[in-house]
Amino acid sequence: MRINPILTIAFLSIIVMIGYLLWQDREQLNLENNPPPTTLHLTVEKYKDILIERAEEQGITIIITDDIRTIEEQDAIYARGRTEPGSIVTYAEGGESYHNYGLAIDFALLSESGEIIWDINYDGNQNGKADWTEVAVIAKELGFQWGGDWERFKDYPHLQMTFGYSIWQLKFGFRPDPDEEPVIRD
């Protein structure tokens, strides 16, 4: 088999470029200087409140059931259905969830009597549309990504704002600016 010299040079150039970028951002890669946050990102907090208000305007009351999580909390959730009793609820280990970086929230519906509703087909405002889907539409208009749109594992309660950052980048210390607005995609 003959090795194509152009592809070899291109491959080596990419490796050198990645190495250079990592070297340039070595301070950014230092997790001691950039530990995971302990509160929701300010923009996520702001849009979470707007989401609650807009849902209420549609006759839907939601409750935020989870927001920022520590790495240890994420590991405990990941253990469910694996090494701990219960059903699998996530495929993200500690450090692999946008919750760990203050960029995600989970929600549920709340009935008039205060009961938490996990039924994604529930139509409490009786307009012929599932309230869960209505909330997801509002959330996406605000710049959240909805776990219900995921192909592999549907996570209906989950909403996240990535600000264009991958989990890999977040794990290595990259963080959105505190006043950064969400990346809204159609």
Oligomer: single chain
Largest sheet: 5 strands, antiparallel
Q: What is the H-and-E element order?
A: HHEHEEHEEH
Q: Tell me the helix content.
A: 25-40%
The amount of beta strand, in percent, is 5-15%
**Annotation, overall tally of beta strands:** 5
Q: How confident overall, as mean pLDDT?
A: 89
Low-confidence stretches: none
Beginning-to-end CA distance, first to last residue:
46 Å
Q: What is the count of DSSP helices, taking H or I runs of 4+ residues?
A: 5
Gyration radius, to the nearest Å? 20 Å
Helix/strand class: alpha+beta
Shape: elongated
GO molecular function, one term: hydrolase activity
InterPro entries: Peptidase_M15C, Zn_M74/Hedgehog-like
Protein name: Peptidoglycan L-alanyl-D-glutamate endopeptidase CwlK
Pfam families: Peptidase_M15_4
Describe this structure in words.
The chain crosses the membrane at residues 6-23. It is an enzyme of class 3 (hydrolase). This is Peptidoglycan L-alanyl-D-glutamate endopeptidase CwlK. It comes from Aquibacillus albus. The protein has 5 helices and 5 strands. It has helices at 5-24, 42-57, 71-79, 131-141, 167-171, and strands at residues 62-66, 104-110, 116-117, 145-146, 158-160. Strands 1, 2, 3, 4 and 5 form a 5-stranded antiparallel beta sheet that branches. Helix 2 packs across helix 4 (131-141).
